[in-house]
Amino acid sequence: LSLCMSVVLVLAPTYVGAATGTSSQIDQESLAAFVGEFEFIGGEEQRRGVLDAIEVTVASIAAGVQDIARKRLRPPNEIPEHVRIAIDGKFSTVALDKRTIRTQMNGTKAAAWTNAKGRRVRVWHRLSGNRLVEKMVGVGGSRKNVYRLSADGSKLYLDVTMASPLLPRSVKYRLTYRRR
């Protein structure tokens, strides 16, 4: 069981033409709405929710490996206190606490990223309506992060799903951030 991925958001464009038959323009307005700084406001309820989600998954595993699974699932699911998202031409930068990633926004192939444990992870991104969808795939599993803004743009919601062929059940939870 090797699930060592960190939550990372790298913005990528949506090419509207593919879905609507119009010209292949980046949806800059939707993309720009995510730019800003956010702080975690989910409090103890969401902190407990992450631990509970891990425990539900751990409970679905054979008793002899539950401690190992718990030990490996907790670090990649630590809650970042701050999120900063910036766009600079063809590039996006996302900082989650002290981790920063800058990636070209081409949306055509996976970007390579090295996580905190030094493992290579492939990352894909797409803008889907009012959601930024991120898919991360590493040696031991995958993670899907779906970012959504509140109607007024003051909050950022993050729905996380972490899966592995070694886990009979995915880890799923939601985090809430407030725009600063």
Topology (elements, then pairings):
Layout: H1 16-20, H2 28-32, E1 36-40, H3 43-59, H4 66-73, E2 82-88, E3 91-96, E4 99-104, E5 111-114, E6 120-128, E7 131-138, E8 141-149, E9 155-163, E10 171-179
Antiparallel strand pairs: 1-2, 1-10, 2-3, 3-4, 5-6, 6-7, 7-8, 8-9, 9-10
Helix pairs in contact: 3-4
Structural notes for this entry:
With 180 residues, the chain is an alpha+beta fold. 19% of the residues lie in helices and 40% in strands. The protein has four helices and ten strands; from the N terminus they run ααβααβββββββββ. A ten-stranded antiparallel beta sheet has the order 4-3-2-1-10-9-8-7-6-5. β3 (91-96) and β4 form a beta hairpin. The relative contact order is 0.25. The model is unreliable at 1-26 (pLDDT under 50).
Number of strands: 10
**Average pLDDT rating:** 80
**Continuous helix count:** 4
**Radius of gyration, whole Å:** 17 Å
H/E series: HHEHHEEEEEEEEE
**Structural class given helices, strands, pairing?**
alpha+beta
Low-confidence stretches: 1-26
Strand order of the largest sheet: 4-3-2-1-10-9-8-7-6-5
Oligomer: single chain
Output the keywords.
ten-stranded antiparallel beta sheet, 19% helix, disordered N terminus, 10 strands, 4 helices, alpha+beta, 180 residues
